[in-house]
TrEMBL record, chains A, B:
Cofactor(s) in the UniProt record: Mg(2+)
Protein name, per record: Crossover junction endodeoxyribonuclease RuvC
Lineage: Bacteria, Bacillati, Actinomycetota, Actinomycetes, Micrococcales
Coiled-coil intervals: none
Purpose: The RuvA-RuvB-RuvC complex processes Holliday junction (HJ) DNA during genetic recombination and DNA repair. Endonuclease that resolves HJ intermediates. Cleaves cruciform DNA by making single-stranded nicks across the HJ at symmetrical positions within the homologous arms, yielding a 5'-phosphate and a 3'-hydroxyl group; requires a central core of homology in the junction. The consensus cleavage sequence is 5'-(A/T)TT(C/G)-3'. Cleavage occurs on the 3'-side of the TT dinucleotide at the point of strand exchange.
Organism of provenance: Pengzhenrongella frigida
Entry's cofactor comment: Binds 2 Mg(2+) ion per subunit.
Binding site for Mg(2+) 1: D7, D141
Gene Ontology terms, MF aspect: crossover junction DNA endonuclease activity; DNA binding; magnesium ion binding
Length: 190, 190
């Protein structure tokens, strides 16, 4: 399975393509950043990002597009542009009938580090290790997009369809993932 | 000049097309609502709305697409979807090289009622009067989209390019508009 991870942003939108390999391994296919100029009007910026996302999807032909779930509580000064780019990435996939998956930042952290509260640097280090890269991909948005793609590949089977499934039915790795995700979510739920 | 007003929303996205007539009058061309089902996934909902917006633009061939400016402070439960639909409307215009204008809710209220703090019902009544309609367009999202289009047609000449222009250089109607807009903006600025 090939996953395109999208870390949405109006100035820099991270894009990372990862293939699943046998034995729960993953291989880097492509990584980069779609950019728009802060000097352009918002509609031109959205168009620039959309055209780059379209190119990536058409060139890489992912089976799934995994997008970071954006919350209204995020950085208020940039959240509107971030939400709009996330929407445009979802639309680009939907136009091609490619399934879309949304993952929260804590799900992504839990998937690649085992802790939903991991620091950004730890996530990026793990992305490089998992993909067998000599260096951490730069900029951070690019590494975050790869982390999203890995998160989607490594999600527990049926995690999205059956979030209440029994812990006993999970593998050890899935239990670790679920526990980390649960721990990370607790503070935001109250 | 023909303006397509877009009142963005994921469940109901208001769409209203207005032509300018000589003597600061305006004529209704078309009004309606793009809808998506709350039972569908977000990517399918965005696709449904995008396809309806595309049809409206291609059929009505507006000179400008006027979109309500969405703020992060809006209703938190719906603001992400609203922002994403606004982004998709801007992208649809940008793909066709049609200029996009953003107007705040208080600008729209000031343009059609003279007061940036007018109630929703007052705005809708004025939309019907301005366009010579026997009844207020329903649903409210449709009327709001027409108000956006009228706001764009009636904005003071050069309002966007030169916000600091002299009050003396304005017509009486423009002064009323500018004063109402200024009054409406004051509380949110401090």
């Amino acid at each position: 399975m090939r996953v395109l991870g999208v870390d949405p942003g109006l100035t820099r939108c991270g894009l990372g393509v990862v293939d699943s390999l046998p034995g729960r391994r993953a291989a880097l296919v492509a990584v980069g950043v779609a950019r728009s100029s802060t000097e352009d009007d918002i509609d031109r910026r959205l168009l620039a990002i959309a055209e780059q996302i379209d190119e990536w999807i058409d060139l890489q032909a992912p089976d799934v597009v995994a997008v970071e779930r954006v919350f209204a509580q995020h950085n208020v000064s940039t959240v509107m542009g971030t939400a709009q780019v996330a929407g445009i990435a979802m639309l680009a996939a939907a136009r091609r009938r490619i399934p879309v998956a949304l993952h929260t930042p804590s799900e992504v952290k839990a998937a690649v580090t085992g802790s939903g509260r991991a620091e950004k640097a730890q996530v990026q280090t793990m992305v490089a290790k998992i993909l067998g890269l000599a260096e951490v991909p730069r900029p951070a948005d690019a590494a975050d997009a790869l982390a999203l793609a890995i998160c989607h590949l490594w999600r527990p089977a049926g995690a999205l369809a059956a979030p209440q499934r029994s812990l006993q039915a999970m593998t050890s790795a899935q239990r670790t993932w679920a526990a980390a995700e649960h721990a990370a979510r607790r503070p935001t739920r109250g």
